[in-house]
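Work Package 3 (structural annotation) set out to generate three-dimensional models for the target panel prioritized at the project kickoff. During this period the team completed the workflow that converts sequence records into discrete structure tokens, so that structures can be stored uniformly alongside our sequence database. As a representative example, we reproduce one entry of 459 residues exactly as it appears in the project archive.
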Amino acid sequence: MGVPKTTARAVSQEAFNDLVFENINDLEMDPTEALQDAIQTLTLQGVDLSGIVTSLPGESNPVIECLEKLKQFENEDITLDEIVEVFDKLVELCGGEDGNGNAAIATKNGGVELVCGVFEKIRSSDGSRVVLVSGLNALALLLHDVQSTGTFQNSNGPRIIIGIINDNKQNIDVLNSSFRVVASAATGDEIVKDSFMELKVDELIVEIMSVHKNPGIQSLYDAIRVLLTPDDNRVLASQVYGYARKFAKIGITDALVDSLHTGLSSPDLVSACITLKATAVNDEICKSIAEKGGIDVVLKCIDDSGEQGNTDVAKVCCSLLSKLAGSDANKSAIVGKGGMDKLIKLSARYADDPTVLQEIMSIISVLSLRSPENAARAIEAGAGDLAIQAMQKFPAAHQMQRNSCLMIRNLVARNPENRTILLNNGIEKHIRKAKQTHANCKEAATDALRDLGLDSYNL
């Protein structure tokens, strides 16, 4: 376990302002010098200045101005059209070059609570959808760290967002912006994930996917992926594995497989593959995906990606297939459907792209694990030549070199005949070079050399 990071010291806006004025009044600095000295002094003391307005005394801050206008809405001193302008300005401020800094200022000064409060008032108002979309886009940018997502949780944010989704199931713009908030809010926050799941966001997602197909809602895929990612470092045991099983049980994998059938013409293909991989957390789910035609459609997409030169699709489909191949039953199905030949064919089309080659090697490695029949079939298809040629051609591609070593190990571990073939073709020197050149290859290369039967594998 690593050493916990020391929590940075904090300072209030009032204390920061007092320091600046002290520099001006007591040390007779000009305002610019006083501001820079305060920033430098506090930074050297390890104080976290995120969320602090560091403008010159008397200068207005555009983020604070936006928040002041949102407060006027509580007293009905501002119209819906004006609220849209405020939200759009926040999107501009928090989505630009200084986005994180401005988002921190907004959240430290009550921005999340104010936006949630606006939503509570306008959800049932006529003509409020434009306001919702604009406000949701702003809120998604404000939710940038665990402090802001914690505030969102304490402001009944999950309940408010689920309510907006339920009220706008036919409006793609509102749904897209709503699920963008779900993804932002749930990132790195297990408590928020749990709140959304308790509010049955999974059932809502499946329902909406059944209504909006081809194209689907892009941010919805992001929301699923984030909900199923164990990314909260504050918890020892994440619940996302259980969430994935709940998603699968109510039909999310079926819906995702269906979305793949449109093929490369679908703008959702990459997102759907990444999301389907996130749901495939156990053998049962992997097999159910195969039973719904998942392997067939992924292999077809792999073929099409090679023919059309679509690198992004090639990589995500290979990554998904590698996950599905974790099931022993699926290994046989993939090989039986000509998977090895399709992968080697794809490697020939992407012979100049190590990022694709490393994904192909990863699948072959999984397919060959504890399966001498598949390892033999891989060598017949050309996996050995792939390893030698790629390692020779891309010596600096450390991840590809590592994946090649892992693949070689699985190809030879239970197949003595493969050892002879690879050694006679000169694989040893390439493995040793990878071991000497890349720190992340050392262990994988050592294991490969050992399973090749070389006594000097530790050298």
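Strands lie at 9-10, 47-48.
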